[in-house]
Design a protein that fits this description.
Helices cover 26% and strands 27% of the residues. With 513 residues, it is an alpha/beta fold.
Length: 513
Amino acid sequence: MIPFPWPSFPALVAEYAARTPQRPAVFHPLRTMTYAELAQEAAAAAHLLQDMGVRHGDRVGCLVRKTPEAIAAYLGIQALGAIFFPLDANQPPAVLRDLLTRLSPRAVVLCASHAGLWDTLGAPHLPRLVLPHPDHELPTPHTAPCCRFWTELEGVRLPMPLPPDDDDTPVYMNFTSGSTGRPKGALTTLGNIHWNSLASVEHFRMTGDDVHLCMMPSFVHPHELFARPLAQGGALALMDGIDPRTIVDTIRRFNVTCFMAVAAIYETLIRQHEHAPFDLESLRVAESGGMHVPAALSREFRNRLGVRLLPVWGSTETTGIAMATPLEEDPSFPAGATGRPLPQYLVEILDEHGEPVRDGAVGELHVSGPGVCREYYHMPLESAESFVIRPDGTARFRTRDLVSRTPDGAVMFHSRMQGMLKVAGMKVYPTRIEELLHEHPAVAQAVVVRMHDPLRGEAPRAVVALRPGQEATPRELWRWLEARLHRFALPRVIDIVDAIPKTPGGKIAWKEL
């Protein structure tokens, strides 16, 4: 184990490869990648990207699946001092094209399974490094101009290029949607990732013996796939998908000790256990983030599987979790609480005037510390609305979550401001869906409310009134939205009614919906 402050992650991997070359770094159903192989492939990827023109400070898009090669590619980009950003294949092509235009990447890392999607984005001359995928053949050079292929790395042994270990260097950009639905790129530095990883490692007492399974997609905090384990010389286990049987098999096959998922995933594991009982003997840390964790879910998971469910809270802008449930049993910790602040984070609960509220009172959650990002990339107005730079140089992030605090410091979540939903941990704004429905020629009025979803925690439900003489089916409206929204933002139900219920004062009667 290397003491903090750690060097850059490519340097960490190179050092562990020199110390313990045959130690597993990445477990995958089709391949186990050792530290020696990870260092070799990350270094070769860096040199190949360098040949493609990538330099320090450039941006590199990543349209990838969760594979060992993707982890090596992320590290190769960091080794050049470039900034990688994930592209979400679930987004409509128009959104992806907008991101490519705004960020002007020097190159893209592309999984072969997404080659068809890439062809729709209208950037055939952008250099691409194509990663293999077991279910898809690599395109041939004459059908994929400007492409280099992962197979070119076979047998290549090159030194790892190492950027300066500067905590202020941007290395990564993660996206969160604003109220308008246009993604905002939180510019994340090496220092942000270091401090966030240290907070998690210290709180959960993680070591190099731990094996980590993160169920978050590769386009949601992809650094969490590798930062925690690589910081300790441990291993990460990868799986694509959320099938509960596969999750159980992966945990048992690779002796996973640390697991992160949204609450809905734990609910599916409980249902799987009811159908076919199993044990998770190796698991010692089961984090649940991305959405509120009901106290009943925590109790049932503990009773059925003998593992404590540990609610955590974090966001894109805090580079991961900033609050967590105590690792050990704590009788004073209230059921249903979100967590207590981690040592590297400062939590403030403020009223509408920016003043601290008393214990038990509801206010807006603000989070500060060296793990908090300072800005959204090239979005100064949105940055000014969300971030305040403190005198010590760290940032304070306005979360727009409404919470309260108990006398012993536990934070209780109440609701999100402006009716925001979190669908499987992803932010979904009803106003964006309503605006798009209003653009349909047959729609007179649309209101979006939240509904329970057994898999994703909650989901949008749309209630629509049509214009006189116009016709539209729920399926037609759903397809209208499908071309314009992320799939997680699509309403689970669309109800067509004669009129949206109103109060005598003409306002929407929310309780009737």
